[in-house]
Amino acid sequence: MTGNYIISLYVFVLAGFVGYLLITRVPPLLHTPLMSATNAISGISLVGSLVAAGGKFGAVSTALGFIAVICATTNVVGGFIITDRMLGMFKRTEKPAEKPAAAPTESKHA
Amino acid sequence: MRELIMQGCYLAASVLFILGLRGLTKPDQAQRGMQMAALGMLLAIIGTLLHQDILTYQWIVAGLIIGSIIGYPLGKFVPMTAMPQRIAFSHMFGALAATLVGVAEFWHDYHEGITISAPKMTALGFEVLFGALTVTGSFMAFGKLQEFITGRPVTFKGQNFVNLILFASALGCFGYLIYDPTNMTVFFSMIAIAFVIGITMVLPIGGADMPVVVSLLNSYAGLAAAATGFVIGNNVLIICGALDGASGFILSIIMSKAMNRSFANVLFGAFGSAQISAGAKSAAGLTVRSISAEDAAVQLGYASKVIVVPGYGMAVAQSQHAVRELAELIEKKGGEVKYAIHPVAGRMPGHMNVLLAEANVPYDRMYDMDEINAEFASADVALVIGANDVVNPAAKNDPSSPIFGMPILNVSDAKHIIVMKRGMSAGFAGIENELFYDEKTSMLFGDAKASLVKLVGEVKSLE
Prior knowledge:
Chain A is an all-alpha fold. Chain A has four helices and no strands. Chain B folds into three domains: 1-73; 82-273, no CATH class; 279-460, Rossmann fold, CATH 3.40.50.
C-alpha cells in the first residue's frame, strides 16, 4: 500500500522537474496563455470526478461527483477554447495584410 | 485488457500535455501544442470512462453536457480585457472539483467503514485543504478584479495573528485526521477553516499585487489536482497537477521578483497601506509640463523611434486598438515603434501582451523589460500609456521609497517622454512619480482612449 504512494511521489517530483524545465522557457509574451492552458489542463480533475459520479458509491458521492464533473468540464472546455482563441491572436509582423513597404524594418535585437 | 487500454490512454495523455506545454515556449508553435494537449484531455476522458468502478453513465453524460454548455461561452465570448478575472474564476471551478472529489472519497470510505490509511489521509488532507482555500481565494481574487470587492488592501489590527491562528488550527485538524481518520466533524471543520483562510489570505492584497496572487492560486489548484491523483492512485492527475503546480509557482516567483518583493511580503505585507506617506517624496514645489495633442502628434509623427509603454491604464481605457492605429501611422511615416512590457504591467502575467495581440500588434514588436531597457537611450519618444509605478525612477534612486529596488523600464533615458494620464493621482502603490516632473517629460492629460484618437487624427493631418 505504502509502496504505491512512494511511486506516486516519484511521479510527482519528476513531473514537477519537467514542469520547471519547460515553464522557465516560456517567454513572458505567452504568460497569460500559459495560465489559461494550465488552467484547462487542471480540469484533469475530471478524471476523478467521473469515477465519483458514475460509481455506485451512494447518492452523496454521485451528487458530489456530478457537480465536480460540471465544474471540471467547464474548465476543460472553456479553458482550451479561450487558450486557442488567445494564441490565434499572436501574429508575426510579415503575415498580416500590410503594404510591403512597411515590412522591411525587420526588428532584430540583441 | 480494459486496464491496459486505460493506462495507455493516460500515458499518451501525459505525454501530450507535456508536448503541449513545450509548444508554449515558441509563439508560432503554441497553438498546435495546445491542440495536442486538448487531444490528450480527450484521451484521458475516454480512458477513464473504461474504469471498472463506473457503473452508470447518466450523471456523467449530464455533467459533461452541462459543463460544456457553461464552458463554451466562457471560452468563446469573454473579452480579452476580462482575462484576469476569467482565469481567477476558473481556478475556482478547478479547485471546487478537486475538493468535491476529496469529500466524496472521504464520505464513501467513512460509510463503508474502511479505515483510511495514513498516507491516503495525508493526500486527502492536502487535496481538500488546497482545494478549499483556492475556491474562496479565487473567488476573492475574482471579486477584486471584477471590482465588486474593493481592490484596495483590506487590513485590520491583528490580521496576521488571526491568519496564523487559522492556519495553525487547520494544520491541527489535519494532524489529528492522520491519527484518527474516522472523525468526520474534524474533517469538515478543516474544510471550513480552509474556506476562511482563502478569504483572509486574499483580503489584504491590493489590486496591483494580483499577478502574484492569481499565479499562486494557479499553483494551488494544480497541487490540489496532484493530491487527488495520490488519493485515487492516478498518475495522469499527479503529472498534470505537478505541471500546473510548477507553472503557477514559477510565475508567482517571477512576478514577485519583478516587484522586488518576497513572497511573504506580498502575502502579508498589504502593500502601500502604512508606508505611503512615510516614503514618498513630496511633490511640493515641482511643476509638470502639460502638452497638447497637436504638439505631441508632431513629436510622434517625426520621431524615428518610438517606444510605447503600456500599463493597466491602457486596459482600463480599452485603448489598445487606438494605440495600434497610432503606431501604424508612425510606421507609415518612417518611424519605428516598439512596445516595452514590464512583467507586472496589468493584473496578471502577460496581460499587456494579450491585449496588444488582440489589437493586432505583431508579437515581434513586443519586448520584455530586459530586452528593451538598453534601447530607451536611442528612442526619440517614450510614450507611457496608463503606466505609473513600473516607470517610477524612485525605484532606482530613492532608498526611502516603498518600491525602491524594483526593476523598472528606463523610460527617462529617452530623448522625450510623453505620459498619458487621467490626472495627477498617484499610482497603485500610492507613490509620487518623479518622472512626471522630469524636464524631458510632457504630460498629456485626459482619458487615454480619447487622447489617442485625437493623436491619431493629428498625426494623420501632419501630411
